[in-house]
Each structure stands twice: as structure tokens, then as C-alpha cells.
């Protein structure tokens, strides 16, 4: 009788502020159509959701985004995108259970929206990388300025690109894997 062995599963959390590109990153790298819990912004969110810098945004994630990447028959990566608004942060504690690491997506136009995600991972000792999402290829800050503004430890990898591009998403995830492999065995 042939035994079928289940693939090992790796969970990665994709976090960041409202409108930074979490849903887009999950969608750009997932091999399957991602599960999205997007809802249209309504007048009820006026004064609650800060649309500064993302005034063209008309939907928001209200629970999570989910994607999958099959690396081999023995390894599957599951991506969980967090909701960005503060009123949904309570879900992050559940989503992070079992996560091997995380990706923080930052928008140089609104770096302050990334502080909570960085604090979240740091306070739980969860390794992470930072993906600077350059909307339409625009980035007005140097890597050193961004690193200083985010107060990132020197060992935290930071990549700059466009999360709509599958190759950039791949590079971000590979940077996380490299970062995880470089850490001491007991963390």
C-alpha cells in the first residue's frame, strides 16, 4: 500500500497599514485566485479610514487575504494578508498563530502606517522583512532615509519595488526565507 504524505505547510503573514498593497502582493504571487474579503468603502468609514495618499481607494480588506504557493510536493506556503485599519487589528493575534515569519509592506508616502506592523512583529519576536511599495515606480526617499524613518534594526532586510510585479513579490518572499535561514536555530 502506498502512503500519501501531506506536504509541510509554511504560514507567512503579510501586514502593513491601510492601502499599502497587502491584497495586491498576495494576489501577485499566489498560484490560485486569492481569497479576498474586500468590501466597498462607504460613508460610514468617513472620519474613520484615513484616505490621505490613497484617495482613489474604494475597497478595503475586512478580514484577511489568503493565497498559496506550492514550492514542491513536499512544501506549500500559505500567505495571510492582514486587514490594515486599526479597528480590525484584533484579528492579527489569531492570524499570526503558527506563522513562520512576516512581510511588512510600507508606502513611502505614508511610512507612519507601517509602525504598528513593525511593532507587532518585533514585540512577538517574529522575523520579518520590509517591502517598500513604490506606487507607479515613484520613491522620493533613499533606502537609508526609509530605514531610519522606520527605525529598523540593521539585520532586517528591506527591499524596494512594486508589489504588483510578481517578480518583486517573489524576491520579497525569498528575502524572508534567507532571513529565516540566517537566524540562530533557537529563537
Question: Topology of this structure?
Answer:
Elements: E1 8-16, H1 22-29, E2 35-40, E3 59-72, E4 75-81, H2 92-95, E5 99-107, H3 115-123, E6 128-133, H4 143-150, E7 158-161, H5 166-182
Parallel strand pairs: 1-4, 1-5, 5-6, 6-7
Antiparallel strand pairs: 2-3, 3-4
What would you note in describing this structure?
Helix 4 links the parallel strand 6 and strand 7 (158-161). The protein is globular. The protein is of the alpha/beta class and 187 residues long. The protein contains 5 helices and 7 strands; from the N terminus they run βαβββαβαβαβα. Helix 1 (22-29) crosses helix 5 (166-182).
Unreliable spans are none
Largest sheet: 7 strands, mixed
The ordered H/E elements are: EHEEEHEHEHEH
Number of H/I helices = 5
Silhouette: globular
Mean pLDDT: 83
Strand composition percent = 25-35%
**Rounded Rg:** 16 Å
Task: Please provide the count of β strands.
Answer: 7
Short summary of the structure?
The protein contains five helices and seven strands. With 187 residues, it is an alpha/beta fold. Helix 1 crosses helix 5.
Relevant terms:
5 helices; globular; alpha/beta; seven-stranded mixed beta sheet; 7 strands
Amino acid at each position: 500500500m502506498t502512503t500519501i504524505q501531506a506536504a509541510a505547510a509554511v504560514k507567512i503573514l503579510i501586514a502593513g497599514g491601510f492601502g499599502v498593497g497587502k491584497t495586491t502582493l498576495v494576489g501577485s504571487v499566489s498560484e490560485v485566485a486569492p481569497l479576498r474579503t474586500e468590501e466597498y468603502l462607504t460613508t460610514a468609514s468617513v472620519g474613520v479610514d484615513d484616505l490621505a495618499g490613497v484617495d482613489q481607494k474604494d475597497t478595503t480588506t475586512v478580514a484577511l487575504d489568503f493565497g498559496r504557493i506550492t514550492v514542491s510536493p513536499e512544501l506549500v506556503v500559505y500567505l495571510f494578508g492582514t486587514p490594515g485599519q486599526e479597528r480590525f487589528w484584533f484579528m492579527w493575534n489569531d492570524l499570526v498563530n503558527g506563522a513562520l515569519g512576516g512581510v511588512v509592506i510600507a508606502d513611502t508616502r505614508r511610512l507612519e502606517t507601517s509602525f504598528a506592523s513593525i511593532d507587532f512583529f518585533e514585540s512577538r519576536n517574529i522575523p520579518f522583512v520590509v517591502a517598500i511599495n513604490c506606487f507607479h515606480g515613484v520613491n522620493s526617499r533613499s533606502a537609508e532615509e526609509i530605514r531610519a524613518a522606520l527605525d529598523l534594526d540593521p539585520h532586517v532586510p528591506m527591499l524596494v519595488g512594486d508589489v504588483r510585479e510578481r517578480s518583486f513579490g517573489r524576491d520579497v518572499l525569498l528575502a524572508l526565507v534567507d532571513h529565516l535561514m540566517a537566524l540562530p536555530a533557537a529563537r
